[in-house]
Amino acid sequence: MSTAASPELYHIPHDTFVADTQAVAQAVREGGWMPDFVIGIGRGGLVPAVYLSHALNVHMLSIDHSSKVPGFADELLGKVAAKSADGVRLLFVDDINDSGGTIADIRRLLVENGCDTGKVRFAVLLDNIRSKVQVDYRAERIDRTDDKRWFVFPWEAVGMDETIVEESLSVPERFA
Question: Is the model's pLDDT at 130 over the cut of 90?
Answer without folding.
Answer: yes
